[in-house]
Write a structure and sequence with these properties.
This protein is mostly beta strands and about 140 residues long. It has one helix at about 65-70; strands at about 5, 15, 25, 35, 40-45, 50, 55-60, 70-75, 80, 90-95, 100-105, 110-115. A hairpin with a 7-residue loop joins strand 2 and strand 3 (about 25).
Length: about 140
């Protein structure tokens, strides 16, 4: 699949780290480092603008290494970029650690995944079909 992209940063385009990676690493585009204090969130620019085909979305997800090693994650994960959005991709990072974190220009801050999606039409009915689970919700399937 080919997607149009404008890169206003000097950083590499989003890229897969390995041949079988699902997500592409995305880098911060900063004039100066950004400090994220514990329990603080910041919108991090990327300098990237994309034109996603209709029927697709881009999902923004955390990087596991940043999450495990530094306590840095994407706040609204997965973040969705719709196919009609043409603005700069920004990533909301949150620091859930007890230490300050500094985001540097060019640092890999998240993963980007291109995915298909469906557009639904609601069929208003009076009753839904029965299942074994029924209305059982959180914790309904039992304990280990």
């Amino acid at each position: 699949m080919e997607i149009k992209i404008v890169n206003k940063s000097n950083n590499n385009l989003p890229a897969y780290s390995t041949e079988m990676s699902a997500g592409m690493d995305v880098r911060a585009y900063l004039n100066e480092p950004i400090l994220i204090k514990p329990l603080e969130r910041k919108l991090i620019p990327t300098g990237l603008y994309i034109e996603i085909p209709k029927g697709f979305e881009v999902q923004i997800r955390p990087r596991s290494g940043l999450a495990l090693n530094k306590g840095i994650t994407v706040l609204n994960t997965p973040g969705t970029i719709d196919s009609d959005y043409r603005g700069e991709i920004g990533v909301i990072l949150v620091n859930i650690s007890k230490e300050d974190f500094i985001v540097e220009n060019g640092e890999r801050i998240c993963q980007m995944i291109v995915a298909t999606h469906e557009t639904v039409e609601w069929n208003l009915v009076e009753k839904l079909s029965e299942t074994e689970r029924g209305a059982g919700g959180f914790g309904h399937t039992g304990k280990k």
